[in-house]
Amino acid sequence: MDKILIKNGRVVDPLNGIDDIRDVIIAGGVIEKVGKGLESDDAKVIDAKGLTVTPGFIDIHVHFREPGYEYKETIATGAKAAVAGGFTSVVCMPNTKPVLDNPETFDHFRRLAERADCRVYGLASATKGMGGKELTDFAALRDRGALGFTDDGGTVQNGRLVYEGLIIAKELGIPVVQHCEDMHFMNDRSINQGEVARKLGCIGVPGIAEDLIVLRDIYLAEKTGGHIHIQHVSSKGSVQLIREAKKRGVKVTCEVTPHHFTFTEDVVLREGPNAKMSPPLRTQEDLDEIIMGIKDGTIDAIATDHAPHTDEEKTKGLVDGPNGIIGLETALGLAITELHERHGVGLKRIFEMLSVNPASILKIKGGSLTPGEPADVTIIDLNREWVVQKDKFFSKARNMPYEGMRLKGKPVATIVGGKIVYEES
């Protein structure tokens, strides 16, 4: 049966201005109709009374580690974590082994992705080998399906390359995507430079390391007319720079992670390496500016930066252990608990950041329940209270600082292309 009728749910579809009790008919892998009192004799019926029905979530920043680091995560396990978190599409970073810097390697990645439970896209690296010295063949990689170009955590330090990349990417109609950190400020690459770092005997990374690259890349985008997308903003200065740039009409977009709108640097004292990521958790002042940026539209998207590592790697400590935490299976709960319940961010805004805007930034199909669009749908229990238990995750990894947290809001079903790929047991 390839037809589904979702009945009696609260449909929140920001792009189409819908927030009402509606029914949704899915047929042939696409949205057929959204309305009231819909019936279908030959459809599988899902009673969504008391539940919320939204466009499928899109995460534009994940690390599924394949090829090359399958001991941390695979595309298959990452995709299972994604659909359990309500995500129907994800975009993988190119820091694999080998790096996704040429058409042949990108083709191999795409073949691996075909078998996943969700739609798996990829960014290609901006420079060869992510070495920061020579641009990759943007046009050839775009033709193979790359949605944009980034060196991820290996920030492109050479401004000339970013300038030239923006010009080429503009012609191709896709963005340059930047992890913004000036490596001259990276020190021991551990945590935020501040009081917590001093307590722990670390040097830390100041917010200005991020601000400087954000400032430079906004300027280059303004001069070229290219689209720069800033990954995981973490500092007050970055949010302010992006806000002002948008007012000037610069083509700049940005994302924020759940951990950066939830925690400050203090959590490192409790969680240690499982609260170590790049950019690091910062101060309450930075977090307050992030919340303001979410509310006023400066920040476009929520992206998890899902970064799996083994327990053995993380136990090497704050300085020697790798950066990154997992986040696909906790993202919605943190968004509802922290943004909606604690800070009063509306559901429409949250679902814009999880679906509409990510689709727009990287030109991915989906992001709405418009008839004819792919039938990618997330069904949510907004009132479900649950406790984070890492041993129940679908991801291979367990590195995250949320264990034992009580969250509100959980996906109960995820539909990709008209197929139910996740149902809460």
Account of the 3D structure:
- With 425 residues, the protein is of the alpha/beta class.
- The chain folds into two domains: 3-53 and 374-423, Urease, subunit C, domain 1, CATH 2.30.40.10; 57-362, Alpha-Beta Barrel (TIM Barrel).
- Helices cover 31% and strands 21% of the residues.
- It is built from 13 helices and 15 strands.
- Strands 1, 2, 3, 4, 5, 13, 14 and 15 form an eight-stranded mixed beta sheet that branches. Strands 9-10-11-12 form a four-stranded parallel beta sheet.
- It is globular and about 65 Å long.
Feature tags:
alpha/beta, 2 domains, 21% strand, four-stranded parallel sheet, 425 residues, TIM Barrel, Urease, subunit C, domain 1, 31% helix, 13 helices, eight-stranded mixed sheet, single chain, 15 strands
Question: Summed up, what is this model?
Answer:
The chain has 425 residues and is of the alpha/beta class. The protein has helices at residues 75-84, 103-113, 138-143, 159-172, 195-200, 208-224, 236-247, 258-262, 267-271, 284-296, 311-314, 331-342, 347-362, and strands at 3-13, 18-27, 30-35, 44-47, 52-55, 57-62, 87-92, 119-122, 176-178, 228-230, 252-256, 301-302, 377-387, 406-416, 419-423. The two termini are 21 Å apart.
Largest beta sheet, briefly? 8 strands, mixed
CATH architecture of the largest domain: Alpha-Beta Barrel
The H-and-E topology, N to C, reads as EEEEEEHEHEHHEHHEHEHHHEHHHEEE
Radius of gyration, in Å, reads: 20 Å
Instruction: Tell me the total number of β-strands.
Output: 15
How many domains comprise the coordinates? 2
Under CATH, the topology of the largest domain can be stated as TIM Barrel
Which of globular, elongated, flat, extended, rod-shaped describes the shape? globular
SS field, number of helical segments: 13
Helix content: 25-40%
